[in-house]
Amino acid sequence: MSPLIKEISWSTSKEPITGMSASYGYQHSSALYVSPLPAIDADSSSDDDETFTLEEGIMIWYEKKTRATQFAYNQYVQHFRTWLRAEYGRDIDHRLKTKHLKLYLIEKAKTTSQMRPVISVLKSLFKHLKKLDVIKRDILLTFDNCKQKPPRHERKLDVSTVRLMFKESLKQSTPVTHVILQLLVYAGLRRTVLSKLLRTDIIRTELIKDGDIEFKYSVKARDAKGGKNRTIGIKTDVGRSLWDFAQSCSTEYLFPGNKDGHLGGRAIASRIKTLAKRIGKPEVSCHWMRHFFASISLHAGANLVDVSRALGHSSVAVTSIYLHSSDAAVSELIDLSTSMDGDMIDESITYVKTESSKKKIIKSSLKNTNKSQKKNGEFV
Fold first, then answer.
1. Which of 318, 225, 297 is nearest to 265 (CA)?
2. How confident is the model over 7-23, as pLDDT tens digits?
3. pTM of the model
4. Quick one: fold of 159-320?
């Protein structure tokens, strides 16, 4: 069990944590108090007892989520519980009705610009609690997730901006920031997954091709979002650079740090934010690199399913959110030309009346055009 789960579920204090707003009117407030777990008599319990208290149900819900996800979700859940206690003097239980959720969401919308994550988290929790029979019915089952409002800045990066960031990273005293940027751009990793990479997660595979030895490189993303693992292929030149860096490390983690033995996600984000500010793009963050990874690879002809798998998405529908349009004319990719007598003819471009030979008609048309131009004095 993660330390954060213990902190959330076993807290016996009924006072809000210092530094966080206790008022449920604020967008980011999270009065993190929870009623203490009831004492359990070991002699009266049995292996057949499958009933769960609210606190136990929430603990199980948090179990397979990352520490960062647990913290974010907990803010939404505890904010709702605080409001419920203040308005009705009780916690989540079988007496909860649809009108309570509607009234809460109306109140929450007054101070929150993005309601989609609020509804999504609560829907996930209530669905889970219903499965465990903590509540009798899922009152959020019929609620629709509202549309996500567009971000303040579209997460669209061009190649020139990314090049500037790499150029700026070369000015650092160590290659750590440069390697972090490589993994963000060429692997599309989330910062939390990147921060926990082991040096052994940079993988080199030896292949024999035509009698010669070749190497392929990949990165293993462990315990990513949803507790999933995946392996991402890396461009050979970049992979070789990452491999050399990993081999030079004498620590277990690729990016060692004081917290939990490795750099934290915030430390990773801070390094990228510093680069962004130095090139005049302070709005750029780590997550922009995932959008860049998706958009650039697809514009270059990558398969949507492959990109979705590399990003660790549950479906290609999620991946589509990461895509941004380019200025290229899509029609440039359409080629209807065919070979005729050694020449490439595209009948979709110029109208030519069908006769015995298209090639003769085309040549005759060009010849008549030249004669007409000479007759009109257009040629000297």
1. 225
2. 444 343 334 433 333 34
3. 0.60
4. hpI Integrase; Chain A (1.10.443)
